[in-house]
Design goal:
alpha+beta; 2 domains; nine-stranded mixed beta sheet; two-stranded antiparallel sheet; 10 helices; 48% helix
């Protein structure tokens, strides 16, 4: 049997999972949020696979179901199971699971996935988020929903079968089949584009597969309860959102900082008090950005180079996490340099004022001495 005919006979049982992530505050107190969501059956699970020992999560996120919404996918009404995952560094990930209608030929499943990604299902996330935030409001430190969001899709395959219903392995899928669902294009990609797209491909057993791209992933896992790959991908997206959020904050802060410095230099301020207030503000901004980013990056640690750890590291690389972090570090360094410059200028101004006072006092003393001779 040729590869093409083999692929055309593959039938799929799976689902599309849509993610939209929001930064909702400086921090979420997860123990408090867990208590507030108690009636909805929240949980705080970690990855459970054997190789998950390479993943360390000090403060596991809280996961809570949010009910079912009806969405239109390719002209068919489908139920979307909505849930959310809360991360302690202030990110809420809202997810919608849309099951494919029964066993489908691979081409039909790919068409279903593309339709789910382009459907109005994305419109259900904000209302679900707002209802959730009302419930957990006391657990959010310095609340505020950022305009920066992150979106991702996972095409989860639970089972592959041939035309006779016999299980087939992941290698039954051709590269063209995988590219079709990941990029949503009916036309084949060039060889170079396909090579780049499928470069992050991982297998642990013969019957599993994970292929990562910038905006979506294909995950084949025969054990329905095993969602560890999705877990680490969601974690990486949450960390990416936090990096992008603080990068945007610093982008806004730098022009404002320059304006504040110019304003502080106008006129004379006794002992540089205006500089003191500005210095305190700059120090606070640097501390907030540094602490928040480090809290997000340290929320999940990798100790060994095994399957889940490799997927997590690859996801961060694909999402350009190190590049975002370098950008943040560069902007924080600019703020710190401005702090150092202003602090030196403030100290010089204070020294100048003190010299004037000393000279004045000496002059007064001389004048008094001459007056009473």
């Amino acid at each position: 049997m040729s590869a093409d005919s083999q692929t055309s006979n593959v039938r799929v049982h799976g689902e599309a999972i849509l993610y939209r992530l929001f930064d909702v505050g400086y921090e979420i107190l997860l123990d408090r949020a867990y208590d507030l969501l108690g009636s909805s059956g929240p949980e705080r699970r970690k990855p459970v696979r054997g190789e998950a020992q390479a993943i360390q999560i000090a403060n596991p996120p809280v996961t809570v179901p949010l009910g079912t919404e009806s969405v239109d996918v390719g002209g068919r009404a489908c139920d979307a199971e909505v849930s959310a995952r809360l991360f302690d560094f202030g990110v809420v990930s809202v997810r919608a699971r849309i099951r494919a209608p029964g066993m489908l030929p691979w081409r039909d499943f790919a068409a279903f996935g593309v339709a789910a990604g382009s459907s109005k299902a994305w419109g259900i996330f904000e209302p679900c988020r707002d209802r959730l935030l009302e419930r957990i409001a006391p657990a959010i430190v310095r609340p505020g929903v950022a305009t920066v969001t992150e979106e991702y899709m996972v095409f989860r395959v639970h089972q592959l079968e041939d035309a006779d219903g016999r299980p087939v392995l992941a290698d039954a899928l051709e590269d063209t089949d995988i590219e079709r669902i990941l990029v949503g294009e009916s036309r084949p990609l060039s060889e170079g584009a396909r090579k780049d797209l499928l470069s992050q491909r991982f297998c642990y057993f013969d019957d599993d597969l994970a292929v990562l791209s910038w905006s979506s992933a294909l995950v084949l896992e025969s054990v329905a309860e095993d969602t560890d790959v999705q877990y680490v991908l969601e974690f990486a997206n949450a960390q990416l959102l936090e990096l992008r959020f603080y990068d945007s904050i610093l982008d806004d802060e730098l022009p404002r900082m320059y304006d504040e410095i110019q304003a502080a230099r106008r006129g004379f301020h006794f002992l540089g008090r205006r500089f003191s207030r500005l210095l305190a503000a700059l120090q606070s901004r640097v501390a907030d950005a540094t602490e928040a980013v480090e809290r997000a990056e340290n929320a999940l640690k990798v100790t060994e180079d095994v399957f889940l750890a490799r997927i997590y590291a690859a996801a961060l690389e694909i999402f350009r996490g190190p590049t975002w972090r370098r950008g943040i570090d560069r902007k924080v360094a600019i703020v710190r340099d401005a702090y150092t410059m202003l602090n030196a200028e403030s100290q010089a101004r204070r020294a100048e004022v003190l010299e004037i006072i000393i000279v004045f006092l000496i002059a007064v003393e001389i004048a008094l001495a001459l007056a009473f001779r």
